[in-house]
Amino acid sequence: MRLALFITCFNDTLFPETGKSVVRVLRRLGHEVEFPYGQVCCGQMHFNSGYRRDAVPLVRSFVDAFEDFDAVIVPSGSCTSMVRDHHATVARRAGGALVDGVARTAPKVYEFSEFLVDVLGVTDVGAYFPHSVAYHPTCHSLRLLRVGDRPTRLLRAVRGLTLVDLPRADECCGFGGTFAVKNTETSVAMGTDKVTATLESGAQVLCAGDNSCLTHIGGLISRQHAGVRVLHLADILASSGALSDVAPYPSSLTSEHARVFGTEPAPQPPGGTAPGLGTGFDLLSGLVPGSAYGSGPGYGSGSEATS
């Protein structure tokens, strides 16, 4: 089975460690993963903001990058939902070959927990994480993908992990992409409610399948100095040790993100390395033998990440 990783814009720019975690888990299970460096944004921001015509070339690029693979793994329920639920709508604007390409490609796109449980048929991925964890079901994974208990089944199989209930778990965290920028006060109020629920749970770690939501919640948690970490599901499943061994929460947020999410501004990374992508996957160069990690224009040798 030929597998590809669709990293997503958010993870590529701010959370490259999550991409590495996905690869580590799949390699632990005996599967190699390729990274098509020509991949670009899935077009969700354009689609949700009403710029649907501008999303057409992005959908075309997605099909070009991924249609030859047997499965595409995505560490984001939000972007998975965009591809499976809305790419067909965008493609109809162009018609013809793009409609057919989306019909071939979209059904092969899986959110990470879906792929592990439904395709590979596993829940125990050999992880060890001796900490208490609460799981936040993000809106797209809960309501559109309907991943159900797949993430919690995976978490319960992690050695040493104690899964605790998150009060009012099905409530939105308030991120919602551009919603957080356009409706800042409402977004922060919703996020504050989620932080309150997290603290009520007593968990050391809040886990979710979308780093976008975790950025929002984590920024608000950091303002309270509550001592709770936020981690993507893949980062926990890739773990084989203590919480201190997991990559720290990134600080590279734009000034606007910092204002919205309650964190201090930090310098941005240098300019992009491939069309539509940031610098994050410089950290992944060379991790996957035979893939485009180390061969695409602008990608490094990977020695810094793998040494």
Description of the structure:
There is one protein chain. The chain has 2 domains: 3-120 and 270-306, no CATH class; 132-261, Rossmann fold. The strands form 2 sheets. Strands 2-1-3-4 form a 4-stranded parallel sheet, sandwiched between helices. α12 links the parallel β7 (205-208) and β8 (229-232). The two termini are 29 Å apart. The chain has 307 residues and is an alpha/beta fold. The protein is built from 15 helices and 8 strands. The longest helix has 18 residues, at 77-94.
Apparent shape:
globular
| Strand line-up across the major sheet | 2-1-3-4
> How far is it from the N-terminal to the C-terminal residue, by CA?
29 Å
Number of domains: 2
Summarize the biggest pleated sheet: 4 strands, parallel
The arrangement of helices and strands along the chain is EHHEHHEHHEHEHHEHHEHEHHH
Summarize this entry quickly:
The chain has 307 residues and is of the alpha/beta class.
Strands, helices and their partners?
Layout: E1 3-5, H1 9-14, H2 16-28, E2 33-34, H3 44-48, H4 52-66, E3 71-74, H5 77-94, H6 97-105, E4 109-111, H7 112-119, E5 132-135, H8 139-144, H9 150-156, E6 162-164, H10 179-182, H11 184-201, E7 205-208, H12 211-224, E8 229-232, H13 233-237, H14 255-261, H15 303-306
Parallel strand pairs: 1-2, 1-3, 3-4, 5-6, 5-7, 7-8
Helix pairs in contact: 4-5, 4-6, 5-6, 11-12
Question: What are the main properties of this structure?
Answer:
307 residues; alpha/beta; Rossmann fold; 4-stranded parallel sheet; 15 helices; 9% strand; disordered C terminus
